[in-house]
Design brief:
The chain is flat and about 85 Å long. It folds into three domains: 136 residues, no CATH class; 123 residues, Rossmann fold; 196 residues, no CATH class. It is built from 14 helices and 13 strands. Strand 8 and strand 9 form a beta hairpin. Helix 2 packs antiparallel against helix 4.
Length: 492
């Protein structure tokens, strides 16, 4: 990669316009079990259909049920035994021989287990056994065939540059220069440099990659465009600065790794992070949710959120009518809230206050207990949290999740201070989608944050949720939310 030499103080006008994308190689490894199951299930279904139509030799009536029962068991067993989590990595590295050996060994184990189960099952004749072995051979061709096709597709994607990881380097000193040159030399096809970033103008050296910017520009880039890694290159003794930079960049959904002092890239695999599947680094901060976690959580949001919205639609319509006829103004109140990755969105709530077209000033005034602006109907809706129900549409739009940190209003102040002025970790709560309910809400931190101590506790609970997320935790929060809403007296 031969870019013009960056000049000290140069600020980039534009960045790469590639949007975030999934790691195709890694994702392919996880999708293969699903392909195995669906493909073998389809094969079994077609075999049953062909036999019923006379397209295949008919098995004896007393053998056919055992045959198809054993075949279905093999279909269920195949994804677990044939799964290879390194498939995508090896395919992208053109290691066909290793792929073939690993797949062959797995299929031998799979075939032996299936034949053992078949042999210890109900008595059967030679025709049934021959048919079963033939079916196993077809399964071998089928599973090997789409692995071969997928490995070819992965290599094509790599040749076209679609699988390169987008890397930003922080630290424009001698170490940064050595890292850039070493990665460009050893990994030209797997790494694309976004740029080198450093806040210290007097420490910027002539680097081979543009653009050259500061940390604010890196954060802005990470919020809107693709960024797979942030690599820090800091000298020995820079631990305080390292901690401050990591803390500052952790607001992004991007893993952060520390480059070792020795840039010999043949490092032992004892390190905690691998960039481009090969370069060993020390992982300082990881993504809050991994690829399948995001997919699972998003699927639950859309499925459960859609079902709940349909079930509550009559109640939503009733509340809308009551709000409309009891006070002038729109039924739905919209407010700008902080979203994931530093973005903003319009949250939907049933209006609970007297309508003011243009509130004076830019500072948001939090609702207080016994607030005179709240309508009589609005007071009931807020106390019962029914005013939050329209946020189900935010979930279906993709703005929110069912469970996550509650989104705070833009420019909201606590004791006349912004959240980011109170605690450095305030923005870290926006590393995942905001939620209708969350860990903080079921632990008593519900309602307005009137004091600094309340806000800090809310942030601590939100960060605990992000660091310990699981599907079971989300389920626990949803179950406890109803009890908390019914028994709580903090909402107003």
């Amino acid at each position: 990669m031969n870019s013009p030499t960056a000049q000290p103080g140069h600020t980039p006008a534009t960045f790469s316009t590639r949007l975030p994308g999934r790691d195709t190689a890694t994702l392919s490894s996880d999708l293969l079990p699903l392909c195995d199951f669906l493909g073998l299930l389809l094969l079994l279904s077609l075999a049953m259909l062909a036999q019923s139509l006379g397209g295949l030799p008919a098995l004896p009536p007393d053998h056919a049920p055992a045959f198809f029962q054993a075949a279905f068991g093999a279909t269920v067993l195949a994804p677990f035994i044939l799964y290879d989590k390194r498939f995508g990595e090896l395919a992208s590295q053109n290691r066909d021989f290793s792929l073939a050996l690993r797949f062959g060994a797995r299929f031998v184990v799979f075939g032996l287990l299936v034949l053992v189960f078949w042999d210890v099952g109900p008595p059967h004749d030679g025709l049934a056994t021959q048919t079963f072995v033939s079916a196993l051979s077809i399964a071998l061709l089928l599973t090997a065939g789409w692995r071969l096709a997928l490995s070819r597709y992965i290599r094509h994607m790599r040749r076209c540059g679609h699988m390169a990881q987008h890397v930003a380097v922080v630290g424009a000193g001698p170490m940064g220069d050595r890292l850039v040159r070493a990665l460009q030399r050893n990994h030209p096809d797997t790494i694309r440099f976004v740029g080198v970033f450093d806040d210290r103008l007097d420490h910027r050296s002539a680097v081979a990659v543009e653009p050259l910017g500061n940390l604010d520009e890196l954060i802005a880039l990470g919020r809107t465009q693709r960024l797979d890694w942030i690599l820090l290159t800091l000298p020995v003794g820079a631990e305080p600065r390292l901690s401050a930079i990591t803390q500052r960049l952790s607001i992004l959904q991007v893993p952060i790794a520390l480059c070792p002092q020795d840039l010999d890239l043949d490092l032992p695999l004892g390190s905690t992070a691998l960039v481009a599947d090969q370069v060993a680094m020390s992982l300082l901060a990881d993504r809050p949710l991994r690829r399948w976690d995001v997919l699972i959580k998003g699927s639950v949001d859309y499925v459960v959120g859609g079902i709940v919205t349909l079930l509550l639609l009559p109640l939503l319509l009733l509340i809308a009518v009551v709000v409309k006829i009891t006070s002038p103004g729109p039924v739905i109140f919209r407010q700008r809230r902080h979203a994931v990755n530093g973005q903003e969105f319009d949250i939907f709530k049933f209006r609970t206050m007297q309508w003011v077209a243009k509130p004076p000033g830019n500072t948001l005034e939090q609702t207080a207990r016994h607030d005179s602006r709240i309508t009589s109907v609005g007071r009931f809706l807020r106390a019962s949290s029914l005013d939050e129900l329209p946020q189900l549409f935010n979930v279906l739009r993709g703005d929110m999740s069912l469970v996550g940190p509650r989104p705070h209003a833009v420019n909201m102040r606590t004791e006349d201070q912004l959240g980011c002025e109170i605690t450095d970790t305030y923005a870290h709560r926006n590393r995942v989608k905001p939620g209708i309910t969350g860990w903080a809400q079921i632990n008593g931190a519900r309602g307005a944050t009137d004091t600094i101590s309340q806000l800090k506790r809310r942030v601590e609970l939100d960060l605990h949720y992000i660091e310990n997320w699981s599907l079971l935790l989300d389920l626990k929060i949803l179950i406890r939310t109803f009890k908390e809403v019914v028994g709580s007296h903090n909402a107003y």
